[in-house]
Amino acid sequence: MEALTTKKVIGKHVYGELYECDPEILMDMEKLINIVEKAAEIGGFTLLDVKAWKINPGVSVVGIVLESHISIHTWPEYSFATVDVYTCGVKGDPVKAFKYIVHALKARRHTLKVASRDYEDN
After folding, report:
1. Is 13 assigned a catalytic role?
2. Where are residues bearing Pyruvic acid (Ser) located in the sequence (predicted)?
3. Catalytic residue list contains 73
4. pLDDT tens for residues 34-86?
5. What percent of the chain has pLDDT over 70?
6. Which position among 21, 69, 71, 73 bears the catalytic label?
7. Which of 21, 71, 79, 88 is catalytic?
8. For the domain that residue 35 is a member of, what is the CATH number?
């Protein structure tokens, strides 16, 4: 007889690399903050705070959501960005939030990876 598996924590980590993005957007801290805010809304998350840092010429933005976080790190000189949307629980859709960011940064190509961050007790 197999033991029953009980999930204690449900987590999903959606992340990837965005290539051939619009470098003007990748340098614009205010636009990137707005993109993270909109991604949280589109994903169905509860936005708690957004912090951003200008790392010339790029920008790093982290949105803290009740469900975990959304981050964008940019390298405008290479038209490149990395994106993470990590959620705990069943609320929201991290893939939808990720795809919105891809569209908003005008990426011509991207990777999308999904990792389970579940904790299962068996």
Report:
1. no
2. 68
3. yes
4. 999 999 999 999 999 999 999 999 999 999 999 999 999 999 999 999 999 99
5. 93
6. 73
7. 88
8. 3.60.90.10
